[in-house]
C-alpha cells in the first residue's frame, strides 16, 4: 500500500487518548492504548489562506471546505455531495414554540439521500490517495448504499456488510450498484466486529474501520454548511441523532474549527443528542450520570441508529457535558410520530433516524430546553423512502373511486364537497 | 482450559506477527495473565493501571461480548475462542 506523504495541511494522526503520534496512514487505533486516532491538522497553515471568501468561491458542494478535510490532492469522487438545504421550519417551529428552528435536510444529499455521502466521498477520495483498489464497510444501511454508489463511480471493488434484517429499500439501494453485499446473520454490532477482524486480514479500505479517522471528518461539513447558511454563525442549539456518536461529536468539532480559524465568532452551541429508546446506550449513560457507556442489544425500528456498542459513546457523553447539552430518547411510536410531524409540517420525508431526531427535539422543547428566539438546528440525516416499512399502515390510505364525477362527489359529505370542489377548481385554474 | 486468543493487527508486533495465540486459563482475566507471560507487554495494552480492561478494548468469548457475560470473570471451556477487537470502529 502506498503511504500518502505528509503535506503541510495534515501533520499526521494522533491518539485522542494518549497523544501518541502516527503517520497519516490507513490505521485507526492507537497501538498503545487502543484509543481512536484523529487527523492532526496544521491549523496555522490552514488559517493563512482560509477565509469566508475562499470558501464561497469554492464549488457548491462540501468540497468548498476541502481545506478542513483530510485529503491531500483535489477530491476524486463524490464531487457533488453536500450543500443540502437548511430549511427554516416555520410550521414545525410554530408547533414547538420556536421562531428560529432550522432543519438541515440531508434527505436530499447527492447521490444516495443520506448524510453518509459526506463521509464516504471523503473516505474514498482518501482511500484512492492511499492506492486502495477495493473499498468496504460495516453498515446499518445508508453507509453501504453510499459506499456502493461511490465505488461504482470510482471503479473500485466493493464489499458491503449489513445486518440481514435491513429494510428492503436499503438492501436494494446496494444491489443496484452491483457491489458484493454480505448480509450477516446478526445485528450491527456483530457485523462491525466481523468487519474489524476482516480488516486486519484483507488489504481493503474499510471506510469506517481502517480509514475511519479520515472518513469521520466528513461529518464536520454538516456544521460548516450550517454556519455558512445561517450567515456565518454557530447555532444556539444542535439536535443530532446518535448511533456511534461520531456525527454528533464531529458537528461540534466543525463549529469549533470555524471559530478557531476566525471564520465565525466563538459561540457556546449546546449539543443535544437523540437516540431511540430501544437502542439508547449513550442517552441512558447520560441520564444515569455515567462517564462510560454500557453496551446494549438493540431493539428499535430505527435500524440506522441501532448500534448497541457505540465507538464514540464516551466522546458523545463528554460533548454533552462540556456544552451543557441534553440527551433524549424516544419510543418506536414516537419515532413514527416524529416522521409524520416533519412530513406534515415541512414536507420533508425523513427515515426513522429523522423521526428520532424530531421526536427528541419535541421532547427537549417541551422540557423547556430552548428559548423561543434561540437558533435551533435539527439534523435530518436520511430519506424516508428507504424505510417505508416504518410508516406503512400508520399513515392515511387512498380514497378509491371509479373515474366518474358522481362517484367522486358521493365520497364527500356536502360540507366537504363544497371545500373540495372549490379546491379542485382552484387547482384546475392554477 | 486450553483456548485460542485472536490477536488484532495493532498488537501483532507483540506476538511475532501471529494472529492466533494458544493460552491456558479458567477465566478471561487468567487468560490475559497467561498471554502476558508468553508475550510480555500484551497486558499493558489491554488493561489500564488498575488492571481493568481498557474502555477501547472489546473482548469476545466466541460470539459474545464479555460485558454481556461476566466480564473478566467470564469462565472458559476447552476449545473456546477469545477475540480481542479494537472498540473504535463503525458508525459515523
Fold and architecture overview:
The complex is a heterodimer of chains A (430) and B (92). With 430 residues, chain A is an alpha/beta fold. Among the domains of chain A are: 86-112 and 217-390, Rossmann fold (3-Layer(aba) Sandwich); 399-430, no CATH class. Chain A is 39% helix and 15% strand. Chain A has 16 helices and 13 strands. In chain A, strands 4-5-13-10-11-12 form a six-stranded mixed beta sheet, sandwiched between helices. Chain A has a four-stranded parallel beta sheet with strand order 8-7-6-9. In chain A, helix 4 packs across helix 5 (142-154). Chain B is an alpha+beta fold and 92 residues long. Chain B has one domain: Ubiquitin-like (UB roll). Chain B is built from two helices and five strands; from the N terminus they run ββααβββ. Chain B has helices at residues 28-38, 42-46, and strands at residues 2-6, 20-24, 57-61, 64-65, 81-86. Chain B has a five-stranded mixed beta sheet with strand order 2-1-5-3-4, covered by helices on one side. Chain B is globular and about 40 Å long. The N and C termini of chain B lie far apart (39 Å). Chain A binds chain B through residues 17, 27-36, 115-116, 119, 138, 143, 188-190, 192-193, 195-197, 199-201, 208-209, 212, 215-216, 219, 243-247, 292, 294-295, 297, 307, 309-312, 314, and chain B through 6, 8-11, 13, 19, 45-46, 54-58, 60, 63, 65, 67-68, 83, 85-92.
- The helix content of chain A is 25-40%
- End-to-end C-alpha gap of chain A: 61 Å
The largest sheet of chain A has its strands arranged as 4-5-13-10-11-12
| Largest pleated sheet of chain A | 6 strands, mixed
What is the C-level CATH assignment of the domain at 86-112 and 217-390 in chain A?
Alpha Beta
Q: Report the principal-axis shape of chain B.
A: globular
Strand content of chain A: 5-15%
